Amino acid sequence: MEGQTTGPISEEMFHSFLQLAVKRQASDVHFEVGYPPTYRVFGELLAAKYPPLTHEDTEAIANFVLQAPGSGFTPLDFREVDRSYSLPGVSRFRASIFKQRGSWGAVMRTIPFAIPDFASLNLPEVVQTIAEARRGLVLVTGATGNGKSTTIAAIINHIIQQERLHVVTVEDPIEFIFQAGKGLIIQREVGADTASYSDALRAALRQDPDVIMVGELRDREAADICLKAAETGHLVITSLHTPDVTRSIGRVVGLFPADEQDTVRARFADNLQAIVSLRLLLRADAAGLIPAVEALLATSTVREAIREGGARVQDLRNYMDTAGADLGMHSFDQYLYKLHEAKRISLDTALGNATFRADLERRILIETGGRSA
């Protein structure tokens, strides 16, 4: 993609950059003033061979996305907006359109048409166990870009393909489009189909759901409604931008005022089914990414620890690796050890992502007889 004709970028050229993103297996494409289109491939940023984008280029891109059929948006009405964008025959994208220093910018995240299954995502068996829960609260957590949405989509797809259940999703924006299975599914997009997560959640409880999927647990009101839905026998699946299991527990409780937190801990403990935390890591062969997974299942011991809070919650890391191991639980460090032992990630990757680096390094050195490679 050498050179640029006069005038702003064409829609055809914009689409060619998106096509190349899919071909390169890029997770995201950045369109920002002063830089060429830039791809994130296996965690690294790679610039396209194209001149730096101008104000006119990025405004044109914002127009292509926001004025797509059915969007209901125009750039002049917004400072930032997330929405879905489809390129037929290529991929779907989650578009984040924003203004920075008076100019438009866009980050497009690739979303495949086909929903991957647990095996192709390299997820452990415990995730399928979690997908077979039929009531309570399931949290999928991790930093942005670490596979939360894809994992939740795989869980939802497993449910509707296996059982005749009614699923309602509330997303901002809609990412994966689910195909017909044994179950029924309603997908609602915040902004386009409903005013807010809270409004859609209240309505969902009146739509005869078996399963409710909430794209992100953002505030106290949404958390309270999710807990009420779980308390009334629904399965609620949602995500949090938290790095691990213990901090996910703290985040949910911390959404509520201090004088409510003891009650919330009890409600959360009673209704939690599982927490899955994800970190995408570069594979040892550098040919792709593989998830490191921390998984907690809500046993009686886990529920008691959540009710008590404090140090008992911190102790759950050890519990996952010992008593919980027979049920498929594991902490990040335990999972990193297994990935390294299987030569799926490098030593540097394992140690660089460890919760307790020194402890993991010591264990690896002992198991390898003092060899650090």
TrEMBL record:
Which PROSITE patterns does this one have? T2SP_E
What's the protein here called? Answer: Twitching motility protein PilT
The residues covered by the Bacterial type II secretion system protein E domain are: 205-219
Protein species of origin: Anaeromyxobacter diazotrophicus
Query: Which family does the entry's similarity section mention?
Result: Belongs to the GSP E family.
Record gene name: pilT-2
Q: Which Pfam families match?
A: T2SSE
Q: Which domain of life is it from?
A: Bacteria
Which molecular function GO terms apply here?
ATP binding; ATP hydrolysis activity
Question: Lineage of the source organism?
Answer: Bacteria, Pseudomonadati, Myxococcota, Myxococcia, Myxococcales
